[in-house]
Structures are given as C-alpha cells and as structure tokens.
Amino acid sequence: MIFNDKLQCHLKSQKSLTSGGAASQDFAARADRRPIGVHHGRRAPDCPTLNMLPQKLVLIALAIGACSAMYSKKDDVVELTEANFQSKVLASDDIWIVEFYAPWCGHCKNLVPEYKKAATALKGVAKVGAVDMTQHQSVGQPYNVQGFPTLKIFGADKKKPTDFNGQRTAQAIADALLAEAKKAVSARLGGKGSSGSSSSGSGSGSGKRGGGNEVVELTDSNFEELVLNSKDMWLVEFYAPWCGHCKNLEPHWKAAASELKGKVKLGALDATVHTNIANKFGIRGFPTIKYFAPGSDISDAAEYDGGRTTSDIVSWASSKAQENLPPPEVLEGINQEVVEGACKDKQLCIFAFLPHILDCQSECRNKHIAVLKELSEKFKKNLWGWIWVEGGSQPGLEEAFEVGGFGYPAMTALNSRKMKFSVLKGSFSKDGIHEFLRDLSFGKGRTASLRSTEFPKVVKTEKWDGKDGVLPAEDDIDLSDIDLDKTEL
User: Fold this and answer.
1) Catalytic one among 9, 47, 67, 243?
2) How does DSSP assign 174-226, residue by residue?
C-alpha cells in the first residue's frame, strides 16, 4: 500500500464516519450495529482453545477445521497462514486487525458476517485478516490466544499488538481501526519514525513510499549518485502509485530490503514522477525491477527474473551477492587467533601445508599460493576459510590432521562445527586440489573425527617476509692448535 494513499484514505474515512454526512449513512447501511455474542448486556464467553478441549474433541475439531474454513479468497478478509503471516502482517506498514478463530466455534461463526462487512468497508484503509487456529496454531502461539474468537490489532508497532475488546460489529471494528490509523499518522507526522519526506521533488508526493523501512527512495536527482558506479549491489523497482501489482509487491519489497540489509540495497523509483531516469531505461510496464551490479552503468542494468515474494527476492539477490563476492583471502596461519578467525562460522576451512622455505624457495612457494588463490576464487560461493602454514611449523595442526613429518605439500579440510576433517590423497596440483574440493562441496570424500573436541593448537610464528630462505652461517673453527699429524688411538 502506498503511504500517501493510505494517509488520504485514513483522513477521508475518519471524516466521513464522524461528520454524520451521507458517507456516514452509507457506511452505517453497510455495517449492522447489532452486537454479536452479547447476552443481557455482556458478551458471551469465548469458545475454548484447542488445548482446553479433550483429546477426542480436538481430533474432531481439526477434522472439521480442515474442510470448513469460514473465509474464502472471494472475501475481503485476508486468509493468514504460517507461510504468509510474517510478510503480510508483521513486515507490512498497513494497520491490521486479525481474528484467531476455529471453524467449529459458534461465536466465530456469528462474527463472520460482521467481520466481512468491516473488511469491505475498510478496503483501502486498513487490512482485515483471519487465522484458522486448527490449521495454523503456531501463528497464534506468540500472542497467548486463550479463546475463540480472539481479535488483535497490529498497529504501527507490530511487535506490540493490542486486544480488540469492543463490540463485535462492523462499525465497532471499523472505529477501532480508524482510531489506530489516526494514531499511526499522528506519530509519523510528529517525527516518530521516518515519513518518507526526503527531498525528492516528487510534485504531489502521492508516489512516495512509506518510511520506517530499508527501501531507498530514488529520484532523478539522486539515482546516478546512489546507484550508478556504486560499490554496492542494487535492485531497483520502477513503480506507479496507481499500479495494483506495485501495491501488492510493496510489503514484500520492504521485508526483503530488511533481510538483505548490508548485502544488497533495494530502491524504489516513482516512474510517473521521475520520468528522466525511467525513460533512460525504457520503462513501459509496472512494476519493472532491474539489477545493478557494483560499478554498473546505465547499459549494464540487468532484468530481474525472479518471483515477487519476500523469499523469492531474498533468494535471487543472495545468489547475485555470492556471485559478486570478492575471493576469500588466503591467510598465513601465524597464530591461534588468525586460524580460528578464518574458520569461525565457516562450513569448511581449507589448510595447506607448504614445504619449508629452504626446500621450496620464494618462487616455488608463491606458485603454490597462487594455486590456492585461484581455487579460492572458483569456490568462493561456498564461503570457506583458507589457511596456509609452513610444513613443520605447526605440530599441533599436523598431529590433529594426521599429516606432516614428510611429504609436503599437503592439504586438509576441517569442519570446525563437527570437528571432522578430510585429507587430500591425490596430487597437490590445481587439478588434484580442484577434484578434492569439488567432492567436498558435494558432500563426498572420506572424513575422520579429530581426537580432541577442542580446536587444534596453533603456535605463534613469524610472518613470512616473501624472501628466499637462507641457510644459517656456520661457525668458523680455528684449526691452528690441532696437530693433524698425531692420531690418538
């Protein structure tokens, strides 16, 4: 939902319901004020939750619930499930009222017509949803649902929903949501959270996206500075405020922007206002989404070909982010901190044991390191750690991995979470290592458990200076006092 559209709808609806005019009469005609479930001036007790029922009744209730949901896709009441509650309600800027119900509950059935009326009357102003607790119990668990129906209002702060305790009529529900919407608008105008009021030069402003999210509002004036030739990866949505598909995409776009924070930036540009940029990309339909890799120019923009749900967007962008990752650094393991840091939170850590510098001088060693760097680039999507050490300098590592003593260079791979390792049995060459790592990436290869549950010990060593090794100078021995002609028997 576009924020400014909601603001206008909120104000118009509030005015019409309180002015007593024709609009108010029309709403009253749609919303029967007769309370539901009220007996002798008080509301009847709610239906019990599933955990209050005997086991046999629970099974019957679940069977009934599976085939008698009270709302359908034809209604204006949104069916909420374990799969969509996060994206539709919690990640949305919309005001929601959510009913937690059971299909067998009499009070829930009595509420249906009034709830549907409220949903229709509030269309475009606030959202009305329902959760079938016989099918999606996990949705209601965080909210301590004790009876059916339970109605909760999810306002500006989705983490703190409030109970709806008013009469169960369409009018009372609408009044409660309009009051909540008014509070949200007042909070935004009062500076409690961003209202999307960046200086975009957008004319009427009806195309601005709501604030309080990680989506960057892009304009003709800031697009080149922020997106083009940027060090960041960008997904940019070109939208029109009146576009229904754009409105449907918005909560998913915002939720994806939050999940991708720090990895990929998501932006939105109102193509009906900022026509200069939109024309440069030949935008003809809405929404159009384009991908910009780091350092992209206008001609480098690529089409987004993924789905339009939060998970689809996050998955597609994460894949692109991995493709554009710099290769991992191949570090020299000179102390415990360096080695454990390289392996922390990594699925695997690759260890290379290179020959002593006297056995393999700088040119030889650099060739080995170059092979490691080339292969780290090829396998960078795996996000492994890479370490090399000089053979014989780290006895703790060599003992743990059962390598060393002779036969350098050597290679092992460590899963530090499971404390299991695998040893390269083939040749220490680009092809041999590639085959070894490829098998590991597919979960193949023999593994063994470390003898200890602790991370192998690493001793502190001097960092290699990049130079050839030099043999230690031998001490000169003065032979002048030795009588070589005399031999002692």
Assistant:
1) 243
2) HHHHHHHHHHHHHHHHTTSS--S------TT-TTPPPSSSSPEEE-TTTHHHH
**Greater confidence, 303 or 31?**
303
Pick the closest to residue 332 from 458, 433, 456 (CA basis): 458
Does residue 184 register a pLDDT over 70?
yes
Options 47, 108, 343, 349, the catalytic residue: 108
pLDDT in tens, 76-96: 999 999 999 999 999 999 999
Query: Considering the chain, what percentage of its residues have pLDDT values greater than 90?
Result: 57
Phi/psi at 417 (5° precision): -75, -45
**Among 47, 246, 343, 360, which one carries the catalytic annotation?**
246
Catalytic status, residue 246: yes
Output DSSP code: residue 463. Answer: P
Binned at pLDDT 50, 70 and 90, residue 66 comes out as very low
Residue 284's SS3 state is: coil
The answer to whether residue 403 sits within a structural domain is yes
DSSP three-state, residue 76: coil
State both tokens at 470.
């030099």
d(CA 266, CA 416): 34
Mark whether 53 and 153 lie in a shared domain: yes
Are 307 and 341 in a shared domain? no
Nearest Cα to Cα of residue 120 among 29, 54, 3: 29
Q: Give me the pLDDT at residue 26, please.
A: 39
**Marked catalytic residue, from 9, 47, 67, 105:** 105
* Residue 377: Cβ within 10 Å count: 12
Directed axis angle between helix 3-19 and helix 170-189, to 10°? 130
Q: Is the pTM of this model over 0.70?
A: no
Neighbours of 56 (CB within 10 A): 8
Domain that holds residue 288: 216-323
Quick check: is 243 catalytic? yes
